[in-house]
């Protein structure tokens, strides 16, 4: 069987899996609406027998699957772990086929690794964005809790009220904590889980204050108002720092794009050059060193511009 037939079969298989993944993603978006009807249980049972649902069960049983599910929930990406894995696998296969014919077979492995890294980087970026949005809502959260406790409400009730008043992601996270307390979880355990889902210095200070107050009492209203003012100042500082570092972040990504783009430009100017280079050990060594330097430059710029707020 020739390479052209293999590439065609891989492409058809990838497109089929991609269409299946998109179909499952679209159906998952309307799952809550279907559950509201009486036929929802039958629909869930049918879906549980589908191959992708069975794959989702297998993925969630593994340690990596559990970690992936937790990261998807933290990032706010509303897809199942199996769908994420399938889409990543399909994109990796497509990248392998494309790079195999566009550049060289040796680089197709690096292309697949790059696709996996890109998916994980996207997931990490979504997590950071949601954490930043949650951190930006902390001053308002502290004010709502302060007003509620000043009115004589208990802390669990104040958290439940704040969940209704605040937008997502703070509202969604507080609703999760409130549901946990309604099911019997203690206040200390519920807010500790919240801190684990949204780790930051700001939420750590706020939750530590709430825990100390719930255990030993104290001037909670005064403390929350002081924390609200402090968090407001830190929010402005974070926004200024992110604006300053925006150019550095763009530079680091430009380095990585230049490294990959240079290969395509070289192959465009002289077709077959990259494939010829990979046919010799010295050529592979030169390509490896060049790509490694670009990757090192990317991570070096990112590391030097990383500031812990």
TrEMBL record:
Q: Which residues cross the membrane?
A: 6-26, 81-100, 106-123, 244-269, 281-301
Keywords in alphabetical order, please: Cell membrane, Membrane, Transmembrane, Transmembrane helix
Where found, per UniProt?
Answer: Cell membrane
- The domain of life is Bacteria
Q: Which GO terms describe its cellular component?
A: plasma membrane
| Signal sequence region | none
What is this protein's name? Tight adherence protein B
Q: Does the keyword Protein biosynthesis apply?
A: no
Q: Which InterPro entries match?
A: T2SS_GspF_dom, T2SS_GspF_sf
Where in the numbering of this chain does the Type II secretion system protein GspF domain appear?
Answer: 142-266
Name the PANTHER family for this protein. INTEGRAL MEMBRANE PROTEIN-RELATED, PILUS ASSEMBLY PROTEIN
Species annotation? Lipingzhangella halophila
Spell out the coiled coil positions from the record.
Answer: none
How does the entry describe its membrane topology? Multi-pass membrane protein
């Amino acid at each position: 069987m020739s390479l052209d037939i293999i590439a065609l079969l891989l492409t058809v298989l990838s497109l089929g899996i991609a269409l299946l993944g998109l179909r499952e993603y679209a159906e998952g978006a309307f799952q809550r609406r279907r559950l509201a009807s009486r036929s929802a249980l039958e629909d869930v049972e049918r879906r549980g027998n589908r191959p992708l649902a069975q794959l989702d069960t297998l993925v969630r049983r593994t340690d990596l699957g559990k970690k992936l599910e937790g990261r998807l929930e933290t990032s706010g990406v509303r897809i199942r772990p199996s769908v994420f894995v399938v889409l990543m696998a399909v994109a990796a296969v497509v990248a392998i086929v494309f790079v195999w014919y566009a550049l060289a077979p040796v680089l197709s492995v690096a292309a697949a690794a790059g696709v996996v890294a890109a998916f994980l980087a996207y997931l990490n970026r979504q997590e950071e964005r949601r954490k930043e949005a949650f951190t930006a809502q902390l001053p308002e959260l502290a004010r709502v809790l302060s007003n509620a406790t000043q009115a004589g409400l208990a802390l669990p009730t104040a958290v439940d009220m704040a969940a209704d008043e605040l937008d997502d992601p703070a509202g969604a996270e507080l609703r999760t904590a409130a549901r946990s307390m309604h099911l019997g979880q203690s206040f200390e355990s519920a807010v500790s889980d919240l801190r684990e889902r949204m780790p930051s210095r700001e939420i750590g200070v706020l939750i530590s204050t709430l825990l100390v107050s719930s255990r030993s009492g104290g001037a909670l209203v005064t403390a929350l108002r002081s924390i609200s003012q402090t968090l407001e100042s830190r929010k402005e500082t974070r926004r200024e720092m992110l604006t300053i570092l925006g150019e550095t972040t763009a530079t680091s990504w430009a380095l990585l794009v230049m490294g990959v783009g240079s290969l395509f430009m070289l192959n465009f100017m002289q077709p077959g050059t990259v494939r010829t280079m990979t046919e010799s050990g010295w050529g592979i060594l030169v390509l490896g060193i060049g790509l490694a330097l670009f990757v090192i430059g990317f991570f070096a710029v990112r590391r030097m511009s990383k500031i812990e707020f």
